[in-house]
Amino acid sequence: MLETGFYAGILAIFYIYLAVRVIKVRRRTKTKLGDGGNEDLMNAIRAHGNFAEYVPFALLLMAILNQQGLAPAFIHVMGSALVLGRIIHAYSITKDILKLRPVGMGMTFTVIFAAAVLLILKYLTV
User: How many domains is the chain built from?
Assistant: First the structure.
C-alpha cells in the first residue's frame, strides 16, 4: 500500500492548495458564500470540487489493487496519470484554457476505468 499512499499524500497536498486558492479568491472578492457571480471564484470552487468528486474514488480503487498485489509499476503509472491529470484539469479551469480540460478529465477517467477493469478481471479469474 506504500505506492498508493505516496500518491494520496501528493494529492492531499494539492487538495489543500486548491482549497487555499478558493479562500484567497473569497477574501479578495469579499464573498462569504457561493461564488457571488465572480468567474474567478466560480472556477476556483469548481477546480476544488471536481478534485473532491473524483480523486477519493480513484485512490480507493488504486488502494484495493495495491492491496491485492498489483505490481507497483502499474500503481505508479496510475498514480502519476492521476496527479498529472488533476494538475492539468485545475490549471485549465484556472487559466480558462478549456481545450486542456478534457485532457485532465480523460486522464482521471482512464485511471478510474483501468482500475475498475483490473478489479473486475481479478474477481472473474479467482
Answer: 1
